[in-house]
Structure formats: C-alpha cells, structure tokens
Amino acid sequence: MESTTKNRQPVGTLRAMVTRAYGPGQLPGDDEGWAEELAHGWFNVVYRIRLLDGRRVVLKIAPPAHVEVMTYERGAMATELTALELIRRQTTVPVPDVHFADRSHELCDADYFFMSHVDGDNLAVLRQEGDLGQAGRDAYDEALGALNRELNQIPGPGFGPLTGPVEPSWRDYFLRRMRELLHDGERRGVDLGLGYDEVRQTVAAHADALDEVTRARFVEWDLWPGNAIVRDGALAGIIDHERAFYGDPLVEAGFTGIDMPDLFGDATPFMRGYGMGAPTPGERRRRRLYSLYLILVMVIETEYRGHTTTEHYDWARDQLARLMKTPVREVVPPTVEQP
C-alpha cells in the first residue's frame, strides 16, 4: 500500500541499521535481495532483512518527522513496543521478539526497531485466494476470537494509551478520541458526505452506553486477518500492534461484523471463539459508536496518507453513509456458555 507515512530509507542507511542492531559480522553482502519491502501495511515502512548467517528478521521504521499523522497515531511505534512487551509477559499469544530498538534518530529521522520474522502465510491473503473454504474460515475466526480474549485479559491501570497518561472514565477517553478524530478531519477539510455536527449528535445520543464499561483492558483493536500469520493450520503469530490501547474489549475488530456483516463478515465464529453470546442492548449501542469511529478513521486517514486516487476514500465514505442510515442491529448469535 502506498502512503506518505512510509519512511523508506536508502540501502546505505539500511546497512547501517543492521550493523548497529546485529554488529558488522551480520552485515549482508552486496548481492540483491537481502532487503525486501513488505508492502501490505498502510502506515509504517517494513522490510524483511536476510542477515549474513541466513536468518530473516523484520525492520520497521516510523513515519518521517515532517509528515503529519492523525492524533491517535502519534507515538505509534512506542505503543507497539509497549504492546509487544505486555503480550509476551502476560499471555501465551505468539508475537515477534524485539531484537533491537533505536529512538536516537542518529541514522534516520524516526524511531525504528528490529524483530523476529514470523514464518507462515498471511491469513487475509489465504482468505482472498479462496483456498480455506467456509469451514476453514470459521475455524480461523474462532481461533482469533479465543486469542483476542486472552489479550483482553491484560488489565489496564486506566483508560487510555499504553504509554500513558490514562484516565478513570472510558466514556471520557472514548469521547475525547472521537473529538480528536473529527478535529483531524475538519483541520484538513475532509468531506464526510454529511455534516460533522450530525456525527456529533449521533455520538451524543448513544454516549451514555459507554458508562457501562468500568474496567480497563488491553485492546489490540487492529486484530483482523491481515495481521494474523498462520502455519500448519494454526495461528503462528500476530503482528502490527501500534494501535493498541486500554479500553473496552468490545471495540475489537472481530466484533465489527455485529454492525456491518456484509462488509466485515459474520462475527458469529469470532464471538463463539471469544466466548461471547448475544450482545445486550447497551453493547449494541456501544458497538455502533465503535463502528462509527472505525469508518470515520478510514475516511479521514485517506487525506493523511496522500492517496493518489479517491478509490478508498469514495468506498469508505459510502460505508459511513450506510452506517449512519442503518438502525442499531438486533443481532442474536447462537448462545455461548460464558467461561
């Protein structure tokens, strides 16, 4: 994916980074192919590096210092490093090991870090290729649900960024994120296809449902099939943790199908794996706010990514219009015994 946030570096800088992280003894030779950009992501630039001893590692570099990012994306690399440490320390969820992190800005104008390479296939690619079949898709969705539940067991000291500061009220924190997001859009003149005040009125109408959330939990938020690596029929690792925060687990990507199944797929297998039954009226109202927030991000971020076509913007704006016109869904999946 092309984006102005991708901080590509010349070969000489990449070699200097490898030397700093692993020492001159692991510096690759001059042959081509030792550094390969992985182009699936939208935000950071990511390289797969082959070290001199044949090991494959991953290098991730934060956006250039001069490129404006959205408010919630500030400090994203520090968030990811914190998330990886929390997950490794408090769960059995498979994630890459961090080998080296450099925030000095001596070799380039941004933070970067090296981590282990997770061998396997990207689950989103397998789904697109159509080789899994419905039973295979459901099995992986169930596995993602169970894995996501384990992540959500990590307690938070309050609601907010993993790196702080946190606050005691989920309602206050989520509404602040929504205000910042809308301000990001207004500041850059993003046309939502409807009035910003109309969005604010919709949020205000359902904001009281946020008061039901009283315990802060680790939220991955970006755990969709594109960030899951599978191998030998099982989940081998999850990647891209820069959007994690402490919040309401119901905001997780796997639950988005409750509101928009035609767009994000049926949420039932994920919910079954998670151990969640039919959502309550309050949960359905909260889900509507979380889906609204997600679609707004997808519309507004196109301006910050510098897309050269309007294809993604047009698609996301259409989804926003549909969501705003659709009443809260009365979704009743099969009852699942709570663990």
UniProtKB/TrEMBL annotation:
Top-level taxon of origin: Bacteria
SUPFAM superfamilies per record: Protein kinase-like (PK-like) (SSF56112)
Pfam families membership: APH
Record-linked InterPro entries: AGP_Transferase, Aminoglycoside_PTrfase, Kinase-like_dom_sf
Domain Aminoglycoside phosphotransferase intervals: 35-283
UniProt name for this protein: Aminoglycoside phosphotransferase family protein
